[in-house]
Amino acid sequence: MHPGRQLGVLGLVFVVLYLCVFFAAGAEGSWKQRLEPKLGLDLIGGTQATYIASQQGAPPRPEDMELAREIIQSRVDALGVSEAEVVIQGNNTIVVSLAGKADEQLKGLEQAANMRFRLVTGVTGDVSSVALNPPSPAPSASASGSAAPSPSAGASGAPAPKADDAKPSATPSTGGQGGGAAAPSPSATPSATPSPAASAAAPAPVSADIEEQRAAIKKKVGADAWAAAEKLTAPVDLSADPKAGLPFKAFADLSGTEVAALSPQMQFNVPTISCEQLNARPNGSIDGVDSEVVACQDGVYKVMLDKAEVVGDDIDEASPQLDTQQNQWVVSLDFKSEGQKKWTALTKKAYEAGPSDPCYVAVTSMYADADHCAVAVVLDKEIISAPQIQGVLTGQSQITGDFNGASAKKLADQLNFGAIPVTFDAGPAQTVSATVGDQQLQAGLLAAAIGLGLVAVYAFFYYRLLGLVIFLSLGLSALLTFGALVFLGRSIGFTLTLAGIVGFIVSLGVAADSFVIYFERLKDEIHEGRSPRSAVPRAWQRAKRTIISANAITIMCAVVLYIVSIGQVQGLAFALGLSTMLDLLVVFLFRHPIMSLLASTPAFMSPRVSGLGRALRRGQTEESGSSRVKEA
Length: 632
Fold this sequence. Notes:
Number of strands: 15
Radius of gyration: 35 Å
Low-confidence stretches: 139-202, 619-632
Strand content: 5-15%
Helix content: 40-55%
Distance between the termini: 43 Å
């Protein structure tokens, strides 16, 4: 290829790279801000969050804490945040540190991500405010504890459906949307009949610790209120007597931890227990798979849920997808072999339930013209969606809800990485200062600049005109590396730390070696009697193999180091590999073409200017001696 074309290709690379720097990968702000690389925690400080294990009794096992740390690390990495620090402190605390302001990224990292699929067996409105403050004399039918929320306050937060609206469902014709096609909305004509809560079943045995908590709660609310709550078999109907909730007033003062100790039937039936209290229960309160649980949906109504027949461990793979037909984000699920059998059995149970089943009565309070039971998709304490099941689902399924691209990806990542085996309480995020500090950073950059300056001085002294080639090549490599650093920081979250700077500095030595190999090979060719113009391409052909081999070995070392290391050492390996590859690009698209152009200039023929020195003089002497021999 002609030297001019190679230089043109290099120029095109620069144009494309810096167009990406200024206009791609979420570039915003002023021109100066768009040129700012993403710096690491040790250079600019950042945000730190503490997660403390909230389980009662003995502290979590060390192996559970280590597994929790690995899962949180995977979640952080999936956010595109590199060089994050996730460490265990003590026997029950995990500390996560991210560079820069990262409050939003730290939210939800402690979530256990326990996915449960449960049959909906009961629905009642959150009427705690009405129960505590009953209206005077005329009772209002809307205060019924058994009625679903008003049509304007749908479970999905959307307006109530019109009569001709399609009801949310899960159908096999759409690929088995087991997670539902849409978040449920209440019926346009909500039922005023209490939904059976399957409370006739014998209560599950509880631990001595729970019994002790219940005894303390009984003393707190009073024996009469406790006895009345135990006798309830369905939610209190406030439409008949607006003051029927007053005997349970003391339950409104219970904390989330105390509410979690109550039986599911009591949480569901007592009208003064609000969704706010249920949502304040500790993490892991409804993770048990062998018992009924109560959850709230959008703070509007309380939902009684059956035992979990399908769990998150039954999911093989979860992936975020954009449903083009509904124009909404969903999380697509592929179940494991046994998990698929469980999911098919659950959807069959919901699909074949009759009007007398509790789940069928419950679904009539959620949807207009209900046909089949609903299955709730529960993540930790939150109901993601609760669609009707419109067929026995045997294939891929979907979870739908109020997702955007980011939240769908977050949920998919949580399911793929698995549930955290320990429940945590998140402490407030706080700002931490740089672990290296500005003075140390400035000192390091000054040392790097001095070292680079000494290399440049030596290159000009020893190679002269060729030293200019060295200086320009290093400058172009630096510009390419800086542009790649800024772009990768925004696109994949690459963070520059002090270890990364070390990697870039080490790569300068690799680049300098390639110059020495090329120029010394050029001198050897001239020593052999060739002219500079013919020596340049021949020296390039011989030196090229050595340069490629040396750089390839460096890149392979960087790859191996990146694979076997963690944390900031990975940053060093990445920086070393990136800068070495960019140096190879400059070698082929700048150094060799510019040498070919210089070989035809008068300055290159001058030993004093070119830097070839004795090699060029010796070559000229040998040519002169050869001419005299021929004349003789």
